[in-house]
Amino acid sequence: MKRWIAELPSRFLVALLWLLHWLPLAILAPLGSALGLLLHVLIAPRRRVVRINLRLAFPELSQAERDRMARRLFANLGRTLLERGLLWWAPRARLERLIAVDGDERVRALLSAGRPVILMAPHFVGLDMGGTRVTMLFDIVSIYARQRNQVIDRWLLHGRSRFGDQLLQPRHESIRATVKAMRAGRPFYYLPDMDHGRKESVFAPFFGVQAATITGLPRFARMADAVVVPCVTRLLPGGQGYRLSFGEPWENFPSGDVDADVARMNAEIEALVRTMPDQYYWVHKRFKTRPEGEPRIY
User: Fold this and answer.
1) Is the peptide bond between 249 and the residue preceding it cis, with omega within 30 degrees of 0?
2) What distances in angstroms separate CA 133 from CA 97, 128, 129, 165, 239, one per listed residue?
């Protein structure tokens, strides 16, 4: 009983998302943007993290320009929060209309040629929309980190697996299963661009700042002899929905030099972020782990 009472806020949120998912996107989108702007005002600690990240990443911009970018980011985050109900309950046909796709023929060609594929998905705010759309196109494999909140965890799992996605836990035993799945023709939807501490990470430049970066992408690519294909989801204005884009396959990757490969990955992600900086997940403390002797940033 105590647990059920403790879960009431989460259950209320899920119920609210269920009600809102019936709205047309032209109405839901501005509601989400308004929520995001409210969160920008109310959640001072995350607002501070965003301001620090943007100052480090875009020193050429004025503070006023960075503040406008931060507000747009929070508006976009608010949208993706309210629109998450679509991922959990909207029928497949509606999601296919809302999430346009381009470049998937590149992945199909690689799979037809028998090449394992890693879909490299940076942390843009539309990430989950893109991930769900990918599961409608391909029988993929991905890694899922369980959430502490069991109510949210249950619905996240539901949303990410309702169209056939195989979800693996981020443990050492998942590595072998992931490589096996790729070799069997299942693209690996992989998110490699967050700060997970020093373990299995190297420092590489990201927007000119040394960032602790996991080495998973070149390691997985080497173990499975896989081709890396950028997989980016863009949030479109108003009620236009989203666009999932598969980029050109990377050539000469991995090179055998892990440090060089990680630096290349960060440079490739940085180039993508610069095309839509207000849609990157700057609320994350991307530069939290510092090289020995460097002061804390946050």
Assistant:
1) no
2) 10, 8, 6, 10, 17
Nearest CA to 96 out of 241, 217, 213 is that of 241
3 state DSSP class of 211: strand
* Burial tier of 62 (Cβ tally within 10 Å: 0-12, 13-18, 19+): exposed
Q: What are phi and psi of 191, to 5 degrees?
A: -115, 100
Inter-residue contact 122 to 137 (CB < 8 Å): no
Q: Which sequence spans correspond to the domains of the chain?
A: 2-279
Closest among 54, 46, 99, 53 to 74, alpha carbons compared: 46
pTM for the complete prediction? 0.93
Q: pLDDT tens string for the chain (298 positions)?
A: 666 566 677 788 888 999 999 999 999 999 999 999 999 999 999 999 999 999 999 999 999 999 999 999 999 999 999 999 999 999 999 999 999 999 999 999 999 999 999 999 999 999 999 999 999 999 999 887 777 878 777 888 888 888 876 676 565 557 888 999 999 999 999 999 999 999 889 999 999 999 999 999 999 999 999 999 999 999 999 889 999 999 999 999 999 999 999 999 999 999 999 999 999 999 999 999 999 989 999 9
Angle at 204 between CA 200 and CA 206, to 5 degrees: 120
Element (H, E) at 209: strand 209-214
Cβ(220)–Cβ(77) under 8 Å?
no
